[in-house]
Design goal:
Number of strands: 10
CATH superfamily of the largest domain: ABC transporter type 1, transmembrane domain
CATH class of the largest domain: Mainly Alpha
Largest sheet: 6 strands, mixed
Number of helices: 20
Strand content: 5-15%
Shape: elongated
CATH architecture of the largest domain: Up-down Bundle
CATH topology of the largest domain: ABC transporter transmembrane region fold
Structural class: alpha/beta
Helix content: 55-70%
Length: 592
């Protein structure tokens, strides 16, 4: 797992505000609603002073007559303020979250293959779902309550100051103590929240692997192992969550105890005799308003402590999101175009290593050329660098050395332009949870139904497709789970046929086919290969005998090159590999 950059709270806050800025008018309405809410709540507390003094002590009938109307009006205003603050703050928050997810998904599609190599899909999914939701909670519910309670605290302090500045000062001196506790708690919560988000990535990863590998798990009796692994990751997640809960559980009482000391001191000073040198005595109505204000202040202070936890979770989530968005995308600075692409390919002194710390090179100064329309086959032992060699052509990885298409360095071509010239069929077929027709036309959405059917027929897939429940409109499930391996492979080949790219890469393209299907597909591929430049990686050497050239790759070097006949006469590595393949089926027949 890649290390996550460290972002200060100030940097995160500032960057979050840039996402809020487009919705500033709604945000202002929410702030006004919170301001009104705080003022109304404080006004109700202030009303206690004249209510007791004028209503209960002086029995002012005019005042008593208007009190019910005032109370109803206050609650109407309070309701309007609640709607403004809750709705518009929530609207801003959900839009920010939507924008985050859109930007993250778009960025995800631009990240280099190397990022996927070092990150699990569970970690990535957790960032887009769990981490973003933490930001949602912090930017809507928590922020609404925080702003509302902040204005309420300010308004209550104003009320207290109008009653007695001396008693108010007693409460104010406890604020630094409360702030110090919350500062310590904030640092603790943010650190733990980051670890919780990492643990959620592990949980997602284990579950995803169990879903994808359910057949292997059942076949090899891996249920116990998977259960134990899942138990470990959820136990780790639970421990981190409990650390967060413990921090919150300790901080709230500590803050309230400090507040209660100020409350106790106020009660004592307010009940001193008027002749006291401190001059802190007040009327019964003022005392009730002061006490209610101080008691009311304890609620926002308690909420601040709780909200601080959610906000710190959001800050930790935002930091991880920004770290993801700051991952460098694929380099795409090319400006040249291929006006009349022919399909000439040239590798010149190409070297490559997986990871900056890798000691052994996967490819070491490989050079060869392929003329337009030629078919070049790569063979060799597993791990020799064959797949890496062809993966460099569409720039799934960047490399040392130079690769050219029709004389233009692939670095000088925009990625979309480059990859539009290449069709790929691999042994690991990727299909989408969609219809057969849309899978064949993937990337060629403008293709007509007739063109799709023609491509399917060329791939010998039309017959089995038409036997499906809805034919070409049949949903095939996640990664084509409702199809056999050979059927999935033929759909992938039909997709490549439909693209009509000048360069074709076949990486074990017929590996999932039975002998009969392979014969049909080989015929279709030969027709396709005659129209484009083809780079083939084949395990079955019998399928590449007609290739214009065969390149033998071993330990990152080209050790042999020539036609089938030339390499057989050379009697080297290629001849040995072919002899081994022909001996294997004979040995099986003898043993049978």
């Amino acid at each position: 797992m890649a290390s996550t950059p460290t972002y200060s709270s100030k940097v995160v806050y500032k960057r979050l505000l840039s996402y809020v800025w487009p919705y500033r008018y709604a945000f202002v309405l929410a702030i006004l609603g919170n301001l009104l809410y705080g003022a109304v709540d404080a006004g109700m507390v202030k009303l206690l002073e004249p209510l007791l003094d004028e209503g209960f002590v002086n029995h002012n009938k005019t005042f008593i007559h208007w009190i019910p109307f005032v109370l109803v009006g206050i609650f109407i205003i309070r309701g309007i303020a609640t709607f403004l603050s809750t709705f518009f703050m929530g609207w801003v928050g959900r839009n920010v979250v939507m924008n985050f997810r859109q930007e993250m998904f778009q960025h995800l599609l631009k990240l280099p293959t190397a990022y996927y190599d070092r990150s699990t899909s569970g970690e990535i999914l957790s960032k887009i779902t769990y981490n973003v939701e933490q930001v949602a909670n912090a930017s809507s519910d928590a922020l609404t309550t925080l702003v509302r309670e902040s204005f309420t605290v300010i308004a209550l302090f104003i009320v207290m100051l109008t009653i007695s500045w001396r008693l108010t000062f007693l409460f104010i001196i406890t604020v630094p103590l409360m702030g110090g506790i919350m500062h310590v708690v904030s640092k603790r919560v943010r650190g733990v929240s980051g670890r919780i988000q990492d643990s959620m990535g592990n949980v997602t990863h284990v579950v995803e692997e169990a879903i994808e590998g359910q057949k292997v798990i059942k076949a090899f009796g891996g249920q116990k192992y998977e259960t134990e692994e899942f138990e470990q990751v959820i136990q780790h997640n639970r421990r981190q969550e409990m650390k967060l809960i413990a921090t919150s559980a300790m901080s709230v009482p500590m803050v309230q105890i400090i507040g209660s000391l100020a409350l106790a001191g106020t009660v004592y000073l307010a009940t001193l005799s008027p002749e006291s040198v401190l001059k802190t005595s007040i009327s019964p109505g003022a005392f009730a308003a002061m006490m209610t204000s101080m008691i009311a202040l304890l609620k926002p202070i308690k909420e601040f402590t709780k909200l601080n936890n959610n906000i710190q979770k959001g800050i930790a989530g935002a930091a991880s999101i920004f770290a993801f968005l700051d991952e460098k995308p694929e380099i795409d600075t090319g400006v040249k175009t291929l006006k009349f692409p022919a399909g000439n390919v040239a590798y010149r002194n190409v070297s490559f290593s997986y990871g900056s710390g890798a000691t052994a090179k996967t490819l070491d100064k490989v050079s060869f050329e392929v003329k337009a329309g030629e078919t070049i086959a790569f063979v060799g032992r597993s791990g020799g660098g064959k797949s890496t060699l062809v993966n460099l052509l569409p720039r799934f990885y960047d490399t040392q050395g130079e690769i050219f298409i029709d004389g233009i360095n692939i670095l000088d071509l925009p990625l979309a332009e480059l990859r539009n010239q290449i069709a790929i069929v691999t042994q690991h077929v990727t299909l989408f949870n969609d219809t057969v027709a849309r899978n064949i036309a993937y990337g060629c959405e403008s293709a007509t139904r007739e063109e799709i059917m023609k491509a399917a027929a060329s791939a010998h897939a039309k017959d089995f497709i038409e036997r499906l429940p809805q034919g070409f409109d049949t949903e095939i499930g996640e990664n084509g789970v409702r199809l056999s391996g050979g059927q999935r492979q033929r759909i992938a080949i039909a997709r490549a046929i439909l693209k009509k790219a000048p360069i074709l890469i076949l990486d074990e393209a017929t590996s999932a086919l039975d002998t009969e299907s392979e014969r049909y597909i080989q015929e279709a591929l030969e027709k396709l290969m005659a129209q484009c430049t083809t780079l083939v990686i084949a395990h079955r050497l019998s399928t590449i005998e007609k290739a214009d050239r065969i390149i033998v790759v071993d330990k990152g070097h080209i050790i042999e090159m020539g036609t089938h006949e030339e390499l057989m006469q050379l009697d080297g590595v290629y001849a040995a590999l072919r002899a081994m393949q022909y001996q294997e089926p004979q040995a099986k027949l003898v043993s049978a």
